[in-house]
Specification:
CATH architecture of the domain at 7-136 and 199-220: 2-Layer Sandwich
Oligomer: single chain
Number of strands: 5
Number of helices: 8
Helix content: 25-40%
CATH class of the domain at 7-136 and 199-220: Alpha Beta
Strand content: 15-25%
Structural class: alpha+beta
Shape: globular
Order of helices and strands: HHEHHEEHHHHEE
Distance between the termini: 22 Å
Amino acid sequence: MVNSNSTPAFERQLANPALHADLRPVQTGPGQRNKPPAEPQGRDGFAACAQHPGLLFFHAGGFNLELVQAAAHSVRQRLDELESPEPTKERLLRVFNELVRQLARPGHDAAEPQGRIAVGSLGEHFWILCSRRVAPDQLTGLRAQLDALRLMSADELANIHTGRQGFEAVAAMAEAFRPSAQHELDSGWLQVACNSSAPIEYGFSRPLPDGGAQLHVRAWI
């Protein structure tokens, strides 16, 4: 497997409160899309996932193209061992691929992108939890896009395609959240929302010294 870190190592990394995601712990199942919960509260979501018996995959550290490809292969192998419906597995892989691409995006400096991602199962559902640093100038636009996607119903998302029509629908909602923000829409988040069975859950940790923040996202499939 790609993840060389064991679950105990995962737990040790998350023992530092500064690394805890601003998300609720894993519950018995995903929320209802037509009734999106308030922005997640609590600071133990990542730690709860680390201890979850359904943990299938974990990686923390650098993300690059080679890692993205190997990670997708590893998750596919784990899913082949499960008896879940194939359409569900395919949706999980689409969400996973988009999230690891988010983690692998280069920042303003030349350093290799750093982040964490975990995949697990819970009953008939799967969850993916990831975390990465967000630069100060990206915070407003990213929050606006995620808020807009969280409020879209399953029917609205089902009618959205990855073409211009889909971008315009999300852009209109995002502008309502942040009228003064001019940020390029990200098709990756749209794909995550369209393939998830519940609204995207997200939160930011305390601000970093440079004004940025650590983003924590959880998707249910």
